Amino acid sequence: YKRITTKSLVDMKSRGEKISMLTAYDFTMAQIVDGAGIDVILVGDSASNVMAGHETTLPITLDQMIYHAASVVRAINRSLVVVDLPFGSYQSDAKEALRSAIRIMKESGGHAVKMEGGKEIKDSIKRILNAGIPVMGHLGLTPQSIYKFGTYTVRAKEETEAKQLKEDALLLEKLGCFAIVLEKVPAKLAEEVAKSVSIPVIGIGAGSGVDGQVLVIHDMLGMNTEFSPRFLRRYMDLHTEMTKALQQYSTDIKSGDFPNENEQY
Ligand code: KIV
Ligand code: NA
């Protein structure tokens, strides 16, 4: 396999080839995702929810993100690995942001960082890009700002927020970001944004008019039964499949069926 780079993603957009992206937080899962030919692996701060059981993405630390990212990177042959800068690691000032991004690159071996926000984090994005670290933007519903929004519903339904979002997308492109994640905004707006920039726009709950799609892997595998937003397509019912397997295992132990003669020394 030829390795995916930030440049190949921009080339894919110009060819009209859609980009596939999924989250992963650990070695074994990342091995499967990479082997399946997914273009981009996101070590998302959704690890805070999915791996650690927190209600929001806010509590996860930079050290914890580095641990997840390093585990993912060890599994990769082809995919581009993008690592979320967690809440609190880049908002104070541009120097702190650069220090955090450098730690991710050095200590995990990830290939790029992702940051939530537009013009309000412009200086930090610039500084990180100046150090040679590729940055993926993230606009629309930005979960690190959940306490400002108050809800996880669709963003930018009104004109003022939509206008700001379009400006932010142009700004991110101008600064030199290689891609933008656009989360939970109306499909028509997302398509407009994707058409207005030459860098790929990767959507989650942003419709089909964008340049690629991302989902949280545990959600699309159906491991999570409670989280059911409209944009989520479940490709497996792994919760049910796993539960059946675990129950069978327990039954086999209790009946004395496991282990059998061939399963011992
Ligand atoms: O952390 C995450 O999983 C994300 C994706 C939903 C884009 O940021
Ligand atoms: Na995230």
From TrEMBL:
Please state which protein family the record places this protein in. Answer: Belongs to the PanB family.
Name of the molecule in the record: 3-methyl-2-oxobutanoate hydroxymethyltransferase
Q: Which organism is it from?
A: Planktosalinus lacus
Q: Supply the enzyme class, top level.
A: transferase
Q: Which pathway is this protein assigned to?
A: Cofactor biosynthesis; (R)-pantothenate biosynthesis; (R)-pantoate from 3-methyl-2-oxobutanoate: step 1/2
One Pfam assignment: Pantoate_transf
As for what it does, the entry says:
Catalyzes the reversible reaction in which hydroxymethyl group from 5,10-methylenetetrahydrofolate is transferred onto alpha-ketoisovalerate to form ketopantoate.
This entry's Enzyme Commission designation comes to 2.1.2.11
* One GO term describing the cellular component: cytoplasm
- Binding residue positions for 3-methyl-2-oxobutanoate: 45-46, 84, 114
- Any idea which UniProt keywords this protein has? Cytoplasm, Magnesium, Metal-binding, Pantothenate biosynthesis, Transferase
* Taxonomic lineage: Bacteria, Pseudomonadati, Bacteroidota, Flavobacteriia, Flavobacteriales
Tell me the active site: 183 (proton acceptor)
Q: How is the cofactor bound?
A: Binds 1 Mg(2+) ion per subunit.
Give the binding site residues for Mg(2+): 45, 84, 116
Q: Which one of the record's GO molecular function terms can you name?
A: magnesium ion binding
